[in-house]
């Protein structure tokens, strides 16, 4: 298994006023091409920080992030991010939001007509082409997140980073979007890294689940393989033995061995 | 909020004709009710100011109607300055022109001075807002400078420009630029980190970031600054023109005072007030038009 994305002995600490806050310690992880990896942990364990490190939005303190054996230390469209709160620009329409990314990334390589087709193709992929002229304030939270995914996909990223993408959505909308992400993953074969705190979501979507210990100085506690064949169906999986075993393993990790200590916060 | 309100009226509109097919009479009452509502809202908003204005004019009339009164009464103003009130755009020669022309001359100066202040203010504010250090260093200086009264700049600018017209424009510029700078800087500092992250992932360069993220995101703040700025510049121009001369509305007041035409001064004050009010509303409306949707998330 060759590593496509490699996190090599990463530490992350924040220094503020002479006080050093250790957030992540000794993170080693290799992700191969086309893999779907979830990172799960209690809130405050630094999983969002880890995603920001991969995205390049936060610099690493020690170690390196390697993509195809090249170090990356600044943000770029080849590591597109689907942000937790969609982060669509409210003054642009749905179409313009995606087009901003497309014209920036493909401004020199695609003609205007090709760029238009590419925007529409990505909006179609998340079934949002019908709302292309709407402003973000005029569509629902789930639709906004779909557009956020379309914007990220339109950059043709090597790695798609999803930062708790469905955290702010209701259960039904979340299920729809999870199906949409699975379908996109099946169709495009993207490498995806998703932050989540939802055990079912992690097991349903992932090839591997990375479980983080509690901070400060959080580590990777355990990595769980999810050997369930794709395409996966949430209803069939509800009684699937492998699914239940994986689910139990994650729950045990989170609630028995690394119980979230509220008093420590 | 306005967007949802609009949506609701659109949504209900097609529903009422379909009701109308069943009972024809039902279509009309809502329409009449709407008209009534508009009339009611107009009377609610227009009648009180008119009544208060009438009362104030009446009090003024009573107070100034004695022969020994030092100020003219409203009736006297109407009689003696009727040509100024009724014909804003007459033109009988270099200094004998309608107040409308004078206001336009003053507005031109404001347009130059305030236009420059708006552009420079937004650019400087954007630079300052991007840097915490510049903000900390320059903010106290700006807070001091912005309290300097407009006319205090006039002698300096007369000395620097050696001419009255550019001096007047400079006074407007220097008066109105501070609120634009300060508000733009605050708006830029308040750009949500999310938008900055988007810009970073897309690798927008400085110029693209300025046009595509910074300006739209800070627009509500910028327009607050512009609105304060345009009010200040209108204050400044009248005062500056009283000293520099020329054809503006400010000089007209000074001229009228020197020739003891008090009713003319009162008419000019009304012009200045109405134009200032209109400028304020104009900038506010432009701001609403441009920032529509930018604040709603």
UniProtKB/TrEMBL annotation, chain A:
Principal EC category: hydrolase
Family: Belongs to the ABC transporter superfamily.
CDD domains: ABC_NrtD_SsuB_transporters
Organism: Mycoplana azooxidifex
Name of the protein in question: Nitrate/nitrite transport system ATP-binding protein
Pfam families found in the cross-reference section: ABC_tran
InterPro entries associated with the record: AAA+_ATPase, ABC_transporter-like_ATP-bd, ABC_transporter-like_CS, ABC_transporter_ATP-bind, NO3_transporter_ATP-bd-like, P-loop_NTPase
ABC transporter domain residues: 5-239
Membrane topology qualifier: Peripheral membrane protein
Signal peptide: none
Top-level taxon in the UniProt lineage: Bacteria
Single GO MF annotation: nitrate transmembrane transporter activity
GO cellular component: plasma membrane
Primary localization: membrane
From TrEMBL, chain B:
Molecular function (Gene Ontology), one example: nitrate transmembrane transporter activity
Transmembrane segments annotated in the record for this chain: 46-63, 110-129, 167-188, 234-254, 266-290
Pfam family, one: BPD_transp_1
Major place of residence: membrane
InterPro entries for the chain: MetI-like, MetI-like_sf, NtrB
Domain ABC transmembrane type-1: 103-284
Keyword Cell inner membrane: yes
Topology in the lipid bilayer: Multi-pass membrane protein
Annotated compartments: Cell inner membrane; Cell membrane
GO biological process terms on file: alkanesulfonate transmembrane transport; monoatomic ion transport
Gene3D superfamilies: MetI-like
Keywords (A to Z) from UniProt: Cell inner membrane, Cell membrane, Ion transport, Membrane, Transmembrane, Transmembrane helix, Transport
CC terms in the record's Gene Ontology section: plasma membrane
Family that this chain belongs to: Belongs to the binding-protein-dependent transport system permease family.
Role this protein plays: Probably part of an ABC transporter complex. Probably responsible for the translocation of the substrate across the membrane.
Protein name: Nitrate/nitrite transport system permease protein
Species this chain originates from: Mycoplana azooxidifex
């Amino acid at each position: 298994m060759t590593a496509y994305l490699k996190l090599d002995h990463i530490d992350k600490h924040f220094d503020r006023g002479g006080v050093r806050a250790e957030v992540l310690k000794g993170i080693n992880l290799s992700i191969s091409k086309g893999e779907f990896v979830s990172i799960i942990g209690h809130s405050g364990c630094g999983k969002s920080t880890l995603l920001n490190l991969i995205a390049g939005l936060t610099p690493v303190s020690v170690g390196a992030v390697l993509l195809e054996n090249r170090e990356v230390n600044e943000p770029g469209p080849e590591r597109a991010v689907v942000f937790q709160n969609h982060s669509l620009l409210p003054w642009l329409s749905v179409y313009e939001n995606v087009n901003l990314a497309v014209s920036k990334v493909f401004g020199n390589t695609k003609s205007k007509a090709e760029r238009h087709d590419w925007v529409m193709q990505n909006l179609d992929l998340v079934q949002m082409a019908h709302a292309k002229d709407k402003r973000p304030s005029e569509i629902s939270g789930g639709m906004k997140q779909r557009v956020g995914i379309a914007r990220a996909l339109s950059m043709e990223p090597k790695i798609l980073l999803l930062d708790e993408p469905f955290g702010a959505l209701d259960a039904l909308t979340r299920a729809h979007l999870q199906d949409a992400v699975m379908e996109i993953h099946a169709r495009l074969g993207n490498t995806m890294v998703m932050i989540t705190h939802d055990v079912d979501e992690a097991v349903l979507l992932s090839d591997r689940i990375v479980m983080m210990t509690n901070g400060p100085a959080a580590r990777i506690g355990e990595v769980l393989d999810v050997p369930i064949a794709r395409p996966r169906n949430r209803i069939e999986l509800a009684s699937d033995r492998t699914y239940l075993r994986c689910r139990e393993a994650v729950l045990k990790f989170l609630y028995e061995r690394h119980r979230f200590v509220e008093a420590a916060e | 909020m306005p967007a949802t309100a609009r949506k609701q009226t659109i949504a209900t509109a097609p529903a009422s004709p379909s009701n109308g097919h069943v009972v024809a009479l039902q279509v009309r009452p809502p329409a009449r009710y709407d008209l009534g509502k508009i009339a009611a809202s107009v009377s609610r908003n227009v009648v009180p100011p008119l009544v208060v204005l009438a009362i104030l004019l009446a009090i003024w009339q009573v107070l100034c109607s004695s022969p020994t009164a030092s100020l003219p009464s409203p009736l006297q103003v109407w009689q003696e300055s009727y040509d100024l009130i009724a014909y804003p755009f007459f033109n009988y020669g270099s200094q004998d022109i309608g107040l409308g022309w004078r206001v336009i001359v003053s507005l031109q100066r404001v347009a130059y001075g305030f236009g420059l202040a708006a552009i420079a203010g937004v650019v400087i504010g954007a630079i300052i807002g991007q840097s915490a250090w510049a903000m900390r260093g320059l903010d106290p200086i700006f807070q001091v400078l912005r309290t300097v009264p407009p006319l205090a700049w006039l002698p300096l600018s007369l000395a620097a420009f050696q001419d009255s017209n550019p001096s007047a424009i400079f006074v407007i510029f220097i008066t109105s630029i501070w609120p634009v700078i300060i508000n733009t800087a605050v708006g830029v500092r308040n750009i949500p980190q999310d938008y900055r992250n988007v810009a970073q992932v897309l690798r927008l360069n400085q110029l693209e970031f300025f046009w595509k993220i910074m300006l739209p995101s800070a627009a509500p703040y910028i327009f607050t600054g512009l609105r304060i700025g345009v009010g200040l510049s209108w204050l400044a121009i009248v005062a500056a023109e009283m000293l520099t001369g020329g054809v503006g509305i400010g000089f007209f007041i000074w001229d009228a005072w020197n020739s003891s035409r008090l009713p003319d001064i009162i008419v000019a004050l009304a012009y200045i007030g109405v134009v200032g009010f209109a400028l304020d509303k104009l900038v506010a409306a432009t701001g609403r038009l441009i920032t529509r949707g930018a604040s709603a998330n």
